[in-house]
Amino acid sequence: MPVVRLRAMNVLIHVVVALHIIGIASLLGGFLTQMKAMGAGTARFVPAMLHGALTMLVTGVALVGLDQADGRSVNNIKIGVKLLVLIVILALVYVKRDDEKAGKGAFAAVGGLTVANIFIATLWT
Ligand code: HEM
């Protein structure tokens, strides 16, 4: 019985990791579609970026809870840094979501911070 429960938990965690990856795809993909426009100063934060950032927050927090419920150790410092970086991303995208032009600096910052978070997630072990 415990074995069955553990497997179900594993599947659940992996499903949420998959949703976490879909969130990155949306956030980073939205950014990439605007890169040419960014060079011209006309980039805007597309809805995919806002929804991707929100997905990262919801799935990330869920993963922390699920990992802890499953007795897995969570690297609190790494997660804390990822959370802080994401909050900055989310704040920028949310505030400027209706602006027709996001501004080069803010737009580049969101792209840079997104890529930084991907490397933090994968290199910080
Ligand atoms: C732009 C923001 C983010 C990016 C690009 C990102 C990226 C990633 C990637 C690539 C992974 C898979 C690699 C790994 O297992 O370490 C991952 C896993 C994870 N992320 Fe994020 N993340 C972001 C935000 C967050 C936030 C805000 C939280 C929590 C509040 C979070 C919590 C987690 C947890 C707990 C895992 C481990 C899943 C597991 O293996 O059990 N992430 N993230």
Task: List the keywords.
binds protoporphyrin IX containing FE, 125 residues, mainly alpha, 81% helix, 5 helices
Task: Provide a brief overview of the structure.
The chain is mostly helical and 125 residues long. It has five helices and no strands.
Helix and strand arrangement:
Elements lengths: L1 H32 L1 H6 L6 H23 L6 H20 L8 H20 L2
Helix pairs in contact: 1-3, 1-5, 3-4, 4-5
The structure holds protoporphyrin IX containing FE.
Protoporphyrin IX containing FE binds next to helix 1, helix 3, helix 4 and helix 5.
Can you give a write-up of this model?
With 125 residues, the protein is an all-alpha fold. Helix content is 81%, strand content 0%. It contains five helices and no strands. The chain has helices at residues 2-33, 35-40, 47-69, 76-95, 104-123. The chain is elongated, with a radius of gyration of 16 Å. The mean pLDDT is 95. The chain binds protoporphyrin IX containing FE (HEM). The site of protoporphyrin IX containing FE has 22 residues, from helix 1, helix 3, helix 4 and helix 5.
